[in-house]
Amino acid sequence: MDRINKIQEYLKASPTDSFLQHALALEYIKIGDDPSARKLFENILERDPKYVGTYYHLSKLLERQGENELAIEWYEKGMSAAKEAGDQHSYNELQAAYEDLVY
């Protein structure tokens, strides 16, 4: 919980910092709090759709929850955002996860 508390303190100074929110969401996943992580991931992508790394983690979370159709949608959005950003590495990761789910 120390990491969570520390990140939350940083967020008080920068409440819309996508990096900090993403880090907090990953910490929530580690302790099994998927609903809190999901909310943060969705907030990040609503506000900052170019924050490419979040698409993968949100999609994986949705897969774990059995929401495969929604996960597919987020993978597709993520691939589009990665392509637009010229981020081939993220695009490849998203595509591989997407294909594992779809095929």
Alpha plus pi helix count = 6
CATH topology: Serine Threonine Protein Phosphatase 5, Tetratricopeptide repeat
Give a short account of the largest sheet: none
Give, in order, the helices and strands: HHHHHH
CATH superfamily: Tetratricopeptide repeat domain
Low-confidence stretches: none
Query: Strand percentage, roughly?
Result: under 5%
DSSP helix fraction? over 70%
Task: Work out the count of structural domains.
Answer: 1
Distance between the termini: 38 Å
Helix/strand-derived class?
mainly alpha
Compute the CA-based radius of gyration. 14 Å
Counting DSSP E segments of at least 2 residues, the number of strands comes to: 0
Arithmetic mean pLDDT: 97
| Molecular shape | globular
- CATH A-level architecture: Alpha Horseshoe
